[in-house]
Amino acid sequence: MNQEVRFRLKHVIIFLSIIGFLFFYSLSSNRDCESEQSSRSNGDGADAWEAGQGRDAFLPNRRGPTIYAVTPTYSRPVQKAELTRLSHVIRLVPNVFWVIVEDASQTSSLVTNLLRRNGLQDRSVQLFAKTPTNFKLKGKDPNWLKPRGVEQRNEALRWIRNRLKHDSLGDGGTEQSHSIVYFMDDDNTYSTELFEEISKIERGKVGVWPVGLVGGLMVEKPVLNRDGLVLGFNSAWKPERPFPLDMAGFAISSDLLLENPQAQFSYEVERGYQESEILRHLTIAHDMQPLANQCKDVLVWHTRTETPKLDAEKTLQKSGKISNDGMEV
Asked: Which GO terms describe its biological process (predicted)?
């Protein structure tokens, strides 16, 4: 009998020992997990979050030079769609100031409403400059037949130069704060990363980078030597141009525009030479600042929106009706 009691007691002791071991093991594991989680939150993890893993990774350039993004635009069925897409990019980049210039005799309510709806009234200006009749495309003219956006980009340059001069006077003649000008057409596709690169442009420099889907190539890009200097460009279309690159492939430090008031666009140059026309006053290829991972990353694409087929709408208009009556499309 005593032997049986001792046997049962032994089993109880073993059972309790196992339970105790498991209990203390679980407590130890929880402490380790909490410690690891805490280190992720307060140590390296916090640094990683601040370095770009958190929400602010989608809001680059919270601080940086003002980027004046110049967008010529004109009334057409896809205008609002194009500008809406562009506005969503600009909303994500706080140091961009949007300069919209309409090819019209006055500003439109469509653009005004779009800026208001996207909360960009304080980060934009709405201008207008009508293209002279003799430089307007007619009927079925191909879009390359005459230069486009000349009047509008020049109007934007006038406005930017006046603003910079006014700001300089307001600062008592002190050194002008750094800013950059970028010609941002409304039919292209832009990554927010591009503006992080543009913000790196130094005073007195023109920054350059690749552009995708342009000039008959998958990509046009600056060609660099071993020292990282721009030797030329890989353009297949009119490579003899002084600067054979796309309008989306460069941005200009604004001090260069103030120092060279003659730098602007012109109706008098042949097709494809608008970029060269302004850049020839500002820089040479070797002095350009290569960006976007030494011109290895594509962050902007020369996309174009297909012209919508509106045959049914035209038929409706002949009967004195429209499908968008009272609506802004």
From this structure: carbohydrate metabolic process; chondroitin sulfate proteoglycan biosynthetic process
